[in-house]
Structure formats: structure tokens, C-alpha cells
């Protein structure tokens, strides 16, 4: 199941502002009935962790290729543009699949 939409930074800021001037969670909930009481509590508690009201990025899956590996692949292609995909995979010890190499090259706008 997908998560609910995040609160906009403006609404988050307004909730924290109301809490800072002494409003309780229930009073804020009466003002914004479409936002659950637990979301209001969570928003106020997590405000200290945010930078300028923007959420921290979610961690996601760790990358298999390091920046050094990416540089190694790109340098190999610049030196020999006709290098095969199998040779590129061997340069990074087959850490990734052919499709991952293809995605990296598309991201770098290198084709054929």
C-alpha cells in the first residue's frame, strides 16, 4: 500500500507555529480536521530534525556501484568507445547486470 501524501511545507510550518504559540494538538486538529491528530503530533515532534521545513530524504536501497566504479566505467568508455559490455562488467567484477550498465550510460547521455 502506498503512503498518504506528505504535508506541504507550508501546512507543516503553520502547525508548528500554532504549537509554538501555545495551541494544543486537539485545538490544532479542530482547526485542520482533515489532518489526523497523530499526524499533528508527529509533525511537531519531528520539526527539530527538518531543515527549512523540508523532509529528510528516505534512505532507499544502497547502490551497488560506487562513484569510483562509475568513474572507472566512464573512463574505460572514453578511452575505447567500442569496448563491449562484457568487458565493462569485468572491470567492475560483475557487481551489476548489463541492464544497470545500460542505465548508467543512459543517465550520462552516452549511447551506442
From TrEMBL:
Source organism superkingdom: Eukaryota
UniProt region (Disordered), positions on chain: 46-65
Composition-biased stretches (Basic and acidic residues): 46-55
Gene3D superfamilies given in the database record: Winged helix-like DNA-binding domain superfamily/Winged helix DNA-binding domain
Protein name as catalogued: Transposase Tc1-like domain-containing protein
Species assigned in the record: Penicillium desertorum
Amino acid at each position: 500500500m502506498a503512503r498518504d501524501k506528505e504535508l506541504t511545507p507550508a501546512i507543516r510550518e503553520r502547525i508548528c507555529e500554532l504549537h509554538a504559540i501555545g495551541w494544543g494538538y486537539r485545538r490544532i486538529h479542530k482547526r485542520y480536521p482533515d489532518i489526523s491528530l497523530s499526524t499533528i503530533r508527529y509533525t511537531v515532534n519531528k520539526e527539530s530534525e527538518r531543515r527549512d521545513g523540508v523532509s529528510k530524504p528516505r534512505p532507499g536501497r544502497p547502490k551497488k556501484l560506487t562513484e569510483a566504479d562509475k568513474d572507472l566505467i566512464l573512463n574505460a568508455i572514453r578511452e575505447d568507445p567500442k569496448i563491449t559490455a562484457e568487458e565493462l562488467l569485468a572491470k567492475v567484477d560483475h557487481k551489476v547486470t548489463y541492464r544497470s550498465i545500460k542505465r548508467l550510460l543512459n543517465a550520462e547521455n552516452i549511447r551506442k
